[in-house]
Amino acid sequence: MKKKFSLLNIxxxxxxIASCETNDPEGEVTIPYTITSYFLGNEKDKVTNSKGGxxxxxxxxxxxxxxxxxxxxxxxxxxxxLRASGSDGYQTYLFKELGFVVNSVETIVFHDxxxxxxxxxxxxxxxxxxxxxxxxxxxxxxxxDNYIQEALQRAINRGAVIGGTSAGMAIxxxxxxxxxxxxxxxxxxxxxxxxxTDTHYDSRNRxxxxxxxxxxxxxxxxxxxxxxxxxxxxxxxTFVYGDDAEHDYAYFIKEDLSYVKIKGSSNGTFALDLxxx
Length: 277
Hints:
Layout: E1 11-15, E2 35-41, E3 54-57, H1 64-74, E4 78-83, H2 91-97, E5 104-110, H3 117-125, E6 128-131, H4 136-143, H5 147-157, E7 161-165, H6 167-170, E8 176-177, E9 182-183, E10 195-198, H7 207-217, E11 220-224, E12 229-232, E13 237-241, E14 249-253, E15 259-263, E16 269-273
Parallel strand pairs: 3-7, 4-5, 4-6, 6-7, 10-11
Antiparallel strand pairs: 1-2, 2-5, 3-12, 8-9, 11-14, 12-13, 13-16, 14-15
Helix pairs in contact: 3-5
């Protein structure tokens, strides 16, 4: 079975097609069975100058103001969500509900490893890439040491804005706790070297284990509570978002385990300059 894409300006497309990937002269595309794709927006790629940056969230509900920052950094381009569970929860939220115009929002759900050219092309064309929550070990199993890692690194190198929540935040540091062990050598992201992240800091009491991770790698740590978001500009300036009326904190932990605890706010609280941290 094939699904033919029409060139409508705005459309919603859900595809789960159990067959091999093909591309033919008529413009028909078959999605491989190893992924599910949800698409909303303009099928024709729009190339914009994305503004770069990093967004990290603690793992519960997304912070709207930080997500607006993420969309603004996409500069009207194409937004790509990558995940290994769940479905299309980000589609309308990012495309319509936050008041920013983007060319498209596509969610790709991975069910296994894939060698799909479709996925590589989507990563190569994205101005913004978001890693959803889930299981970071699956992300490493599916994406590490293959062409997806290479495509993601190309996106980072060309200045795409990237971000993630929960498991999606866990994979943004140089060191990654995969639920069993600490891994490294995945993504090389400016200001995230020699760092291991952690999430759900308040609800799951994770500070103690995070301090152990930091001691093990002899590095630093960045952590976020459930409703907290951390936004890092390409120049290293870092702001923390949260509910003004709640205790939403981010943590920046040094090698000696001393740390700065920053309260998030709706306008973003300046935390620190990572050049001097």
